[in-house]
Amino acid sequence: MTRNLILGTALSSMVLLAAAVSFLWTPFDHAAMNIPAKLQTPNAQHWLGTDHFGRDLMSMIMVGARTSIAVALVAVGIGMGAGVPLGLAAAARKGSWLDELIMRGNDLVFAFPSLVIAILITAVLGAGAVNAIIAIGIFNIPVFARITRGAALSLWEREFILAARVAGKGAARISAEHILPNVMNLLIVQGTIQFSLGILAEAGLSYVGLGAQPPTPSWGRMLADAQTMVSFAPHLALVPGMAIILTVLGLNLLGDGLRDYLDPKLRVARA
Amino acid sequence: MGFKSFVFAASSALALMAGGAWAKDSVTIGLQLEPPHLDPTSAAAQAIDSVVYSNIFEGLTRFMGDGSVVPGLAESWEISGDGTIYTFKLREGVTFHDGSTMDAEDVKFSLDRARAEDSTNAQKALFEGITAVEAVDPQTVQITLEAPQGSLLFNLAWGDAVIVAPESIESIKTNPVGTGAYTFQEWVQGDRITLARNPDYWGEQPALTSATFKFISDPTAAFAAMMAEDIDAFDNFPAPENLPQFDADPRFQVLVGSTEGETILSTNNKQPPFDDIRVRQAMAHAIDRQAIIDGAMFGYGTPIGTHFAPHNPAYKDLTGKSAYDPDQAKALLAEAGFPDGFETTLHLPPPSYARRGGEIVAAQLAAVGIKAEIINVEWAQWLESVFRGKSFGLTIISHTEPMDIGIYARPEYYFQYDSKPFQELMAKLTATTDADARAAILQKAQEMISADYVNGYLFQLAKLGVAKAGLQGLWENAPTAAIDLSALSWTE
Asked: How close is the nearest chain A Cα to the Cα of B386, in Å?
């Protein structure tokens, strides 16, 4: 276990835990307004203070973690669910029209600046968490397709695949039974990275008002709401800002750590 | 040049620069919205009036900062015995910025254009009672009314009734030519509009030689620009939360006044379940106005119980009719057949009174069981789907036109209140010229819409002006959207 992995796991599980606990318990009702108690700095009652409506920031951060994780997780799911089969298919039919079609399609999606297009998609479909998921998910597809194809191509050259072909297995079966398990490590690492990017993208969309709509709390919108109050209530921006930073940092460290841990070459070195 | 003389030269140059800075004779004013064009007679956009009203264009009468109506281009007027003929005497020696004289023909042209069948004037109702406008001689205009109309002089003071010239009407939207104390200089789209003092102005020469309107839509950027002293004043500062900071800073002055903006929870009266008065009454009792004013506006704003400005002498305080009482709201909902509440939509345009106020309203409605789904919209979208399309349940909007209770007499108006007695009352108001009788009718009208719970009446929007300490003459209140540049000056 490397230091990255430990720190990354710790930070990531803290966020996951906060989100999980929020289903059962939060210090206050995250949507309950108490305007006379607005803009409190962190204190014994409100651990992270209160916002401009007197809502408890700790509770909002916990429920907001749920929104971020849900959006990012489903978006990664969409990316993997569509991207991995496409990548496997492209590798299995290397050089064919299918490979060309998939990879040029990938290039097309890659060519667009992802967050800008995500804003466009949510602006057209309407703001909301579901549309944010779709917008972020679409841009995850080519990432997974490309990484799967790249890894799969080198595997197709290996002897054990040749053996499988000699044994009479078709391309689809080989892809599922031999290629996929061998690219899994790579996908897990990439998934972690994409997960953190998804959280950033969700925060970005919410910041411009296109993510989850009120009263569903969202870290990005909390930041946007805090903007005009930074000069006299900096904790309003610091709290969601730190939540985003620590989550993204944690997931990136986890991704790095996992790559080192799962890499067969390094595993040999450790042994 | 020796060292000493260099120091001397440098310091005198500095002194000169400092001297220049002291004798300041221009002003830069921040506005949140950029006008779509500069013709006040063909659009409702407030931003147009902010720039041009009384600066570039003038009407026969005009508003002062305290809301009073005083002579403008008309020096005086006479009203016939039966109250149907107004004879205006125009000022002598008034010229448009292009040098042509302003005479009775221009007045006739302007008013006829505004009230024409194909006119695009945003406030055509202002001119409805006029049957004829005649130029008796170059200095005299006669306006004939269908019936006596108490509000004519008030109506003619609106930015929508300013006098324009037929010669320059083609390019009015980009190059406005009026009679005002300032002439249009330059418009850098997306950034600023510059005006310069009109040396040929008929009235007193204003103190400032030039003025720049700078458009800053983002509240954070507006705050930064004020703090950096890049702009001298912000007409209506978009972030009320920042006012205490300006107040505490000796470099600035804060002017809190009133506007004509009744901020209401506009309700689609034709859409079930809002066609049931008990539902509307329940919503009225579910809303805690003070919480909205404190939470959304940081305490700036006056609670209202009807669609009328509290600073108007005819205002009647009816807030007690819709006092905050969630239990009564629940009882009324149950009586109307919604013991568990219902679902609806809440469309919110961009200003913070709507976006923040909307979050609070949604939470308050949720407390009595009404689930209002918040839909944030941009202005264009709001105009399209709510104002014109009427496809909404609830929306929050500030009606900033002065004395606009008459909109309740228009059944096709977007909140679709259709009440024969109210329409008759408004017809009676139009025909009444006596001030006391008018006030009595206006009070009755306020009571009527309050008793029908047409909309949720929230608060009167405050005008939150911020300016550098030395700037004098800014309007504290906003009887109409206007920034009267000729009243401005700098103190040493």
From this structure: 16
